[in-house]
Amino acid sequence: MRGFVTPEVFGRNIRVSSANAASAIPVCEYTLAVVLFSLKHKWRLSGPRQGPDGEAILPPGAYGSTVGIIGLGTIGRLVAPALGRHDLRLIAYDPYCAQADAAELGVQLVDLAQVFKESDVVSLHAPPYNATRGLVSGDLLEQMRTGATFVNTARGELVQHEELAQVLAKRPNLRAVLDVTDAEPLPPGHELLQLDKVVITRTSPDPSGAECRRLGACVVEELERYVNGQPLQH
To answer: The domain containing residue 44 runs over which residues?
Structure first.
């Protein structure tokens, strides 16, 4: 939305509303499914292989395992309580989130390196700012636990893809689930496309089918509030 809404918009006292809150719900649902699937290491059974790929690593499962969340914005704040309904330890990195807010979400704030060191699954939900471009580096990925999974449903440019490919090639016990890439799609022959430790789903959490009606309902409800002189929610 930042590409369309500039300071000049607010300089003209134009109020702006977004259906982002409704759009975040299917992303949260997708993230929950992927995280739980990853904690059980079921990606090993996907694809052309007929069974486990031979790695003698026990899956951590969804009891007492650690999930790291990077970014506690609109989506991160949905993902945390969704995961919190399971017996998981939740840690997060967000330099703009207050300790009290994190505690209310059931999340322990830690530094970025600690998220990668301690998590069985790391889920990326940071916003695409200049400061977050290339946020996820090879050095961070290299610190991940044996058997851990990295999940990106945010933006491809937040991850240094060449370094991700190098780490995954070096450490076959890691996996990555990428719903977004940089570029999209990846060019033929890209290193990540050659690795069976990478699952690329290509924006599958985007609202689809009947989910699009949720976006419409969100907009209509907001317009009704505007017409009736009520405060806008979004």
So the answer is: 24-205
